[in-house]
Every structure is written in structure tokens, then in C-alpha cells.
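User: Predict the structure for this protein chain, please.
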Amino acid sequence: MPFDLKTAALDQTFPDLGILFGADSQSAEAPSVYTAKAVVSKSVSDMADTWNNGATTFTAIKMDVTDTASASGSLLMDLQVGGSSKFKIDKNGSPFFGTATKRVEITDPYGFRVTQGGILDFSVGNSAIARLANSGWCTDVLRMGRSIGYPTVLTVDGAHILAQRNGTNAQAFNLYNTYTNSSNYERATFRWNANALEIKPEAAGTGTTRVLHISGLPTANPGPGILWNDAGTVKVGT
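Assistant: Here is the predicted structure, written as C-alpha cells:
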């Protein structure tokens, strides 16, 4: 049905967003002249939707671009503050976001990368726990074994000193020659066992226990408790 401004009832409500059409006169009689009144906007886009059917796949916002020809820098979205991009998505679907000094993007063929600032800190609260920089992944503590409660911890005891420790738990390091599964392998182990330090080859399944070679021993008695090579015979120094 056509909407006739001259015969419509006067509406004195003021919406948050839009153009309000009202009469110049506040009388009940239909005036002959109408004016458009601008309304100050609270939000450029303030939307609400209702999803109430579990069998329906809803889409709140959708833009379908037919790209027959466009510059490589064309954007599906560009959110700015004061003319500066804060979040944007290029036409390939790659997002770009960041602050005034750091920019991050997820794009082919690089994946996740820092494009401005050179350093990306990962923090919990106000404490940085790791850093991604040009030199690589940087952290003070690396915990491994998520499925078993992160019991294996690599950290540092000082400059150029790598440490594997976790409280009073005895630690071990396995270096594999072959590995099929946890029941079939050849390896060397370096571990604490019942307060004794063990260095030895091990094997399981079809694996073979290999020979342990210690080379570079001194050829003269070096002193108490130190191994040395006495004409091809390993001896303990006295």
C-alpha cells in the first residue's frame, strides 16, 4: 500500500538511527509542508538477529563479491581509526591486524608472520612468556607432554647453559638410532637411576644393543677417578 505523508498520523518518536519525517505543525491537521529532520546516530551499524532453529545454518553478515578484475591489494574489509587500518582482510581471505608499532598477518606462503615491529610477544596478563623474533622462537621455559601433564621441562641455568629439570624428579635423555614404536627401537640413554648416573645403549623388539665408544681419552694417568687410555686399555686414573 502506498504511504501518504499528508494523511499519515504524526509520529513524534525519535529513532537512534535514520531520518525522521515529521510535520512542521504540531496540530492534528495535515500540514501542507513536511521537512526532513536529521537524527544523530549512536552507531553506524547496530544490528540484532534471532537464531531459533537448530536445523538452519544461519549467517549474520555476508558479502559476496564477484571479482572479474581488481588490484591485488583489494580488500574485503578495512576497519580504520583516524584513517589508519586496524584490521583488514584482503581478497584472498588473509587477515592483517596489529597496533601502531606491530603488524601481524596470516597469509600464503608465509603462514603466521610479523610484518612490522620484528618482535611479537606472547603474554599472560602483563607477563611475557615467549617471543617470536627474527632470531627464532624465544622463551625461558619450554614444557612438553600436554597429554601427561607437561612433566618434561627445558629451561636455562645461566648463559649458554641448557637444563632439563623438574623439581626432585630424576631426568633422562634418550638419543635414538632407530625407532619403530615404543616397543621396537635402538637408542642410547643418559639418565639418573636410583641416584646413579647411567650412560648406556639400549634396544627393544628387533633392535640391537649397539656398542658404546668413548674416544679422546688421555693416554697418561690424569688423576683419581678419571678414565684414560693405557695402550688400548681403559683404566680409571689413580
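Confidence is low (pLDDT under 50) at residues 16-28, 30-34.
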